[in-house]
């Protein structure tokens, strides 16, 4: 049997001809390290230098918003009206001297934009976000017009071209976790009776077509897609597999598999026993996706050990291992795994036992850790739940206050 280390170290050639140096990727983690104008800060480039030297072979950035008036979080990096690639060059250069690929993840929040950032977000249809409790934080959206949808497609293509001109080596579209692309895919949030609603995958496929045309055939184009939204009547597995086939036919280079939305955050763990036994969250789905397409597959969510990662690769269901939260406390984990060290990704985020607080904490605790890395500090592994929540309560309103509202 091939040793775990050798399996992880194998290069992967993508359809476009680009080669990923090995099988360990850093998945997108929203950094919230943009400045007042939502341009990247020096800390952001410093953070990616740390991650690139930590050994990940593919770094997918945290979500970059294509519309500066539609943010998912305060301090997102967002493409301005007239973008200049030079603004992104220092970030692109952060991986210099390593063999890491750096791909920009492009996103639009749609209705998933908190009230303090968007007084009235726009979405495929006017369906409010979340349960009644959560709705105090998220304003009800209005439905996008056909012209506005075309403009958003243009913005994705412009963003892709701008980042590639700046030196980024690939592009990923964020089609998971309940943001705009997910909203178009889901029958619960896309009630349109025009061409964008009759075929709910049209928006995503049009984005792929336009982004490919903007960056050319040699640049990797990837999509992060939900295996399912895990909501009754929502985007389910059968439909997701149909979208995988269509994406593969449309010529994407890598499909990253995740699942859930911020209403049902299974991407951070479902607690199911079968999942706990097999470490990663979406392996069964990956095996099915493998049956319907030959596109390279990456699974993100739950990986902790070299043995678990190697077993997943050995199963033949996937080609790349995506790591998110573990790299906020140990940026050198990929290098250590590749060196054959006996390490495991630690899951250190504390919990309060209060469901809403804990799902906020899962994001905020890790964001605070990556802010420490960006500032050149070591992770604060023992940071407690209440300390992290209080800090969020202070930082977010302050940052939001600085934003121009949509
Ligand atoms: C702080 C934080 C920020 C995240 N931001 C993004 C993001 O911008 N885009 C995205 O696709 N996923 C994002 N995710 C989800 C991760 O990419 C990943 O799917 C999830 O953490 C599960 O992987 P893990 O178990 O290795 O952490 C984020 C997760 C966390 C904890």
CATH T-level topology = TIM Barrel
Describe the sheet with the most strands.
8 strands, parallel, barrel
Number of strands: 12
Terminus-to-terminus distance: 56 Å
What is the approximate shape? globular
Proportion of residues in β-strands: 5-15%
Mean pLDDT: 93
Q: Look at the structure and give the CATH class.
A: Alpha Beta
User: Residue share in helices?
Assistant: 25-40%
Question: Could you name the CATH homologous superfamily?
Answer: Aldolase class I
Q: What is the CATH architecture term?
A: Alpha-Beta Barrel
Strand order of the largest sheet: 3-4-5-8-9-10-11-12
Summed up, the domain count is 1
Q: Which regions contain 5 or more consecutive residues with pLDDT less than 50? A: 402-406
Compute the CA-based radius of gyration. Answer: 20 Å
In this entry the ligands are: flavin mononucleotide
Note the total helix count: 15
Structural class: alpha/beta
